[in-house]
User: Fold this.
Amino acid sequence: MRRKASLILLAFAVFFATLSPMLRWYAFPRLAKVPANEYQDMVLEARNATLLDYGTMRARKVPEVTIVQTLKGNVEASERIERTTGRDVVVWDGLSYVEGPDGKMVSRIPERYIFDAHTQDPVHAPGESVDGDPVRREGIEFKWPFLTEKRDYEYFDAQTRTSAPIHYKGTQDFRGLEVYYFEQTVPWTKVKYPKTLPVEGITPEVLADTGTTRWYTTVRKFWVEPLTGAPVYGEEIHKEELRGGTLLGDRDKVTAFAGHVKMREDYIEHTVDLVKTNRTLILLMTSYLPWGFLALGVLLLSLALYLEARNRRPGDPTPAQATTTEPVNA
Assistant:
């Protein structure tokens, strides 16, 4: 019986020892994915900001500018792209909506972001765009990969339609979470006007005819939880200017927007709670279960060897000796 038990324990030891790396290296990449039907919204605020009054073409101080960002998973589009690429694809239809203190629109910029559900690498397919303009993203946007590393990443900037490194600056504690801090500085760059502007009759084409150009710079900051790759907090020190042309009269430039943009407190709390929950799921697949199964396999192997050793301890008769009888002399 001891020998049969040791064989059973040995079989289970092999099973759990094999399951450990399979869960980490085979199952995790196939199970840890951004859902195709994901929906997120986030509100950011810039208090005591500077904003251009398009009626007077003068910059003025305002108590608050609000930016509402929404990301909505487009399941139909993702399934269509998956059929042609053979990859698990997520399509996010995003909208960045900016409004002034009076609740009126300042700008609205739609995006379509197409990326791999597990790696977050961009997937190039028809429809990839910013404000209706086709783009070809390189690097990440909005979300870092699962198991984010302590290194620089290429990050796509929707205003300039280009990618540049966002630099890892260190590890910090953010409300009980260990996070990686990343920072990117976009230098002053000439950018396009939004296609939807706040004043009726003023279009990007009308502004272009005046010779007045739009320029932009920002310092972008993210605090990223590394297991999930999700930013738990973000800030931007954002500036926009209009320069030259007849629209400004005798002025060389005017500030269109300047402010320190931060996540609103209720959205910070919600994001931190959500990330903590998802973090536990990632830990189960990458650490708790693989190491637990490996430890269980080692324990079962030790028990199997112990039983086998007891079965063969010195002094016990072998099976052949136990069944042999002394010959009887007549």
About this structure: The radius of gyration is 30 Å. The chain has a mean pLDDT of 90.
